[in-house]
Design brief:
mainly alpha, 164 residues
């Protein structure tokens, strides 16, 4: 796509990004992928790569999802979402040890509004590794950051119940 015929490629890129997200939340993944790619062609952003990866994950293509998140990290290393997403995808693949450094990077990112997800995911990994007290701490961090986070509450209560 040539950008010479578009007056403001960044504005058009954002428009494609927003359309892609709308398709994604409706479950129209192929349309979402198309629009994320159009957005990226005009103006590559960490957000578009991360959300494209998320869409691939819904289609079960975890390797492509990870690849897109790694592209996001190269564009904006301070953006926490792709680090958490890579960690989550590695958990899905059963690669728990490999997931942990990515989740730590998410937790320590400068730009990550949903850090409770990374604490929760780290809790999941620690629990799977049998490190239950450390997992409890991570679930508690997640709940402190987001008091209404139901999954963290459920995992915390379940794990505490096992220890009683």
């Amino acid at each position: 796509m040539s950008t010479e015929n578009i007056k403001n490629p960044i504005e058009k890129s954002v428009e494609y990004l927003n359309k892609a997200y709308q398709f994604q939340i409706k479950g129209q993944f192929e349309e979402a992928i198309l629009h994320y790619k159009l957005s990226l062609e005009l103006h590559p952003t960490a957000e578009a790569h991360t959300f494209l990866g998320w869409t691939y994950s819904f289609l079960g293509d975890i390797d492509k999802a990870i690849e897109e998140c790694k592209k996001a990290v190269t564009i904006d290393p301070d953006y926490g979402n792709p680090y958490n997403d890579i960690g989550s995808y590695l958990i899905q693949k059963g690669l728990h040890d490999e997931a942990m450094p990515w989740l730590e990077l998410a937790i320590n990112s400068k730009k990550y509004e949903n850090v409770h997800f990374a604490h929760f995911n780290l809790g999941r990994v620690l629990e799977l590794k049998g490190l239950w007290f450390e997992a409890i701490d991570e679930y508690k961090y997640a709940i402190n950051l987001s008091p209404d986070y139901l999954l963290a509450k459920q995992n915390l209560n379940r794990l505490q119940g096992l220890l009683n």
